[in-house]
Write a structure and sequence with these properties.
Blueprint (H helix, E strand, L loop, with lengths): L2 H12 L3 H10 L13 H8 L1 H19 L12 H20 L12 H11 L1 H18 L2 H19 L5 H17 L1 H9 L9 H12 L1
Helix pairs in contact: 1-4, 1-5, 3-4, 4-5, 4-6, 5-6, 6-7, 7-8, 8-9
Length: 217
């Protein structure tokens, strides 16, 4: 199996529309007709609840991991770290492109953040863990998944360029491109955050209720 076929296969894996299939099979709706109209995990959280949102997120992450790991089907890449990293980036980007423009769902997908994270897990798991830490910290204090995704993507570039000082040029360019891509695809979310209309995920509701009660005392 040559590189081109693996790139196509990575795109098809990324195109698996987890949230669309879940919403249609279990709820009889198309997730893209509700909430933000996005076919990603965040909108699934909003519309279908945390259980299904988590399920979709895990599946979308696994899409990135699986697609990026397809390099193992070509023995050459098992022994050349430089070329392997470049090829893994190509496979991962194909999967992300498939998630955003899924051939299996009329080319109307999500924003690709979870699949992108799965790609990072496959290439550099330590950096992925650091980005998860940033994501969870921001989510804990704000409950904005969009803001958490944006800051995690920016931190990814910071980790690659400065903290871990990755030497591979393509990977460094990729890290910057990821940050820019996530910012650009979240323009509407940024505007809603600034206007105070961005939806929050249903986390830590009891904490917020306690704070509200204290203010009213």
């Amino acid at each position: 199996m040559n590189e081109f076929l693996l790139i196509v296969l990575a795109y098809v894996i990324g195109s698996i529309p987890t949230s669309v299939w879940v919403s249609k099979h279990f709820f009889g709706i198309d997730i893209r007709d509700y909430g933000s109209g996005n076919a990603g995990a965040t909108n699934t959280y909003r519309v279908l609840g945390s259980k299904w949102g988590t399920f979709v997120m895990v599946c979308d992450i696994l899409k990135g991991v699986l697609a990026t790991s397809l390099y193992i089907l070509i023995p050459y890449y098992m022994h050349d770290e430089w070329d392997r990293t470049n090829f893994m980036v190509g496979l991962g980007l194909a999967a992300v492109l498939g998630h955003i423009f899924p051939v299996l769902a009329d080319f109307k997908g999500g924003k690709g953040v979870a699949t992108l994270f799965g790609m990072v897990v496959a290439i550099q798991p330590i950096v992925a863990v650091c980005c998860v830490g940033v994501f969870l910290a921001v989510l804990f204090f704000t409950r904005f998944v969009s803001l958490s995704s944006i800051l995690a993507s920016i931190s990814f570039a910071v980790f690659i360029l400065f903290i871990f000082n990755e030497k591979e040029t393509l990977y460094r360019v990729f890290a910057v491109a990821v940050a820019l891509m996530v910012i650009l695809t979240h323009q509407k979310n940024i505007n809603r955050i600034l206007k105070g209309t961005e939806s929050k995920v249903p986390l830590l509701r009891n904490r917020d209720k306690r704070k509200s009660r204290r203010k009213n005392l």
